Amino acid sequence: MVGRENEIHELIDLLQNPEVGLITLHGFGGAGKTRLAMETGRAAVELFSDGVWFVPLAPLSSPDHIVTATAAALRFSFQSHEDQQSQLIRFLRGKKLLLIFDNLEHLLPEGSAYLEHILQNAPDARLLVTSRQPINTPWEWVYPLRGLAYEAGGSLTEEEIPAAVKLFLQHLSRAGSRSIENDPACATQVCQMVNGLPLALLLAASWGRTLGCREIIQEIQNSIQFLQAHQKTFPEKHRSMQAVFDYSWQLLSAREQAALRKLSIFRGGFDRNAAAEVAGADLALLAALVDHSLIERGSNDRYQIHELLREYLKERLVEADEEKSAGGQHLAYYTRLAKQAEPELVGERLDVWIARFTADMDNLRAALEWSLRSHETTNFELGLQLVTSFGRIWQLYNFLKEGLSFLTRFLTEPPDGLGKHLYAEGLNLAAELTFRMMDYTEARRLANEVLRIGQEINDARLVGDAYRCLSAEAMRWDDFDNGSSFAQQALESYQKINDPLRTALALESLGLSETRARNFAAAYTHLTSALEIARNLKDAISLSVILRSLGALALADPQIGLQRGRAWLEEGLIYARKHNDITLVQLFSMVLGEILRLEGQHEDASLVLEETLHTMNEVMLKEELIAFWLNLGFVYSRIGRHDSSKKIFLESLVELQKFDQLVFDKSYCLLGLAGIAVTEGKPQLAAKVLGALEKEKEQLVYWRTDRNEYERILSSVKAQLSEKQFSHLHKEGQALSLEGAAQLILNQGIKEESRDTEMLNQLTKREIEILRLVAQGLTDTQIAKRLVLSPRTVNAHLTSIYRKLDVNSRAAATRFAVEHGLA
Question: What is the pTM of this model?
Fold first, then answer.
């Protein structure tokens, strides 16, 4: 029996337990309770000297008939007019047997009395019952049965294929279809859609000769009516999933039906409070629905409804004309929840709300979609309030993109009558999220609109938020004067309303601007004041941001020891990792890499920067990463990897020419190329480039790492030229713009060597494929499974790759892959 081996062993252990007389296999319709009970009986037959007997109860219309059904199964004949139950009990007394009572649910609660009577008078007998709801007697041992296990598809061995997938493929094979066997991912998706329910898998597989796997998935998504048997030999209540649900539905009271159909409005689960407020389902009703196997309580105190059942219940909701009211109650509940959360999204309670937000993500999506579809201003406002109240959580990396997507839809066509303040709140959050998504031009536009409305309605918080966003945007483009001015205005706005969190963030912005203006004492004062506030609030998000800025200050200010800077960064990294903010984590790693450079640990710095850039390539725009790639270029030049260094600088130069701004990055890149020129014996070219950089020198030597590089390259150039030569060439270069210096470099022979390209061209298609997977961190065994090769073959390919690339380790091969865009 596919996938139920553990259950059979556990049930047999229970049957041998002298304390267990009655076991109820309790589960959803179609979970395979009957089959499991029968297979358990077969496996346990040697334990019962008087046999294992199967008593089918589905055909019975009344609990009064259970006695005669039992007698028929036992082939027992009643001998007199004495009470039949007494005769049967007397027959059972002293016998060591197993009675399997199948499908008891429709005979409850009256039917349980007979089973209790057997237990009391025939203690050697064991009872195994299948039912969609427990019997609820003191002697009962409830054994819940769920769907079969399933997981993500892939290249798996026979032993690794999940039970649900194996069963589905087996049903397909029996039906005469083998077309899906080579697509386990698709088969897994089918299993996931039906929660591994054996009956649903059988019904889906029955279409295998007619439809492909993707078509089966589409049909299931369209309607549960698709899941029905062609064969008429199926029992009526198992002929389709619709029949399974109809049967369970008819066993419910009117009150239970009303609550259950309203619960179908939830997605991804719900808790007791949500069930009570949205569906009017109190604890007693929830308990009854759990007993009927129609909802399931998870380990996290949340309840789930099988997705197929939810689709069925949705039809019942529409039939009752309750869809609109249930959707409204669902939206209103989650908006109230968001408003309750909003003041607690600062400090230690934030983690509690992130967990709740994550658990209810599907419900939040459903509520927001319903709000947008309803075309009613009241519902639209509730939806926008729901988004903005949870604003601080949307700002986290994991939720950033989706939050902005919803906000954009709300703000694109706001309805007439939408309150100006609520609209501005939406714009304000959109500006923050847009900035974090690195669309700086749009962030500035949104922030200016928030500023206009905030000043119009005299809302100091909105004004402060707008100025803080504008400060960050100005700093991004090295506009330090406006960055400082905007940050100061933000601070003044927040101090008016005594908002400590925002005050800390404004001080952090001021600290950054003072750092870039080389006012290190003022920067230190602002940043440490911000840190004190954030520590008092115990707020991990603001602590991580402020500690990173302090780490950056340590890079710029020689009065701050590197050890102290490292301590700030390592503490901040803990906070950033706490909320899985990938972007912030990698930015911390970058600054730590810069500290390694200052300490002269260039090999270690290269490893940190390579790993970080590999991750950041997936989450940041290319132009955002240029400065970090340039850092790596300088590190490579320090450890003798001149070809790799040159490649980074030349590619970055081409990319930077697409932007009018990014003056610092352009200057930094040209400095690196000046260093390459010196290395290649072209000090005259390097002197001219340094001359072109003279007007940007103040910013160029701002960070201590950059100052060290500038002084190193300048010293190398002067060592190869006379003082007169250098002075003449340097002055000649001062007449050049940055663009002119770039063209001079490209025209005078600083070109990327072709050796790497030649090595790359030597690799076969299969070797490139394996190299990509190595760079992704896969082991030889994992690569072998992915590509359906033997580990020995993979190892042979790797040996060839190492030889062709002139490397001797997996790390070096990975580095080559990263540098050449294969990772």
Answer: 0.75
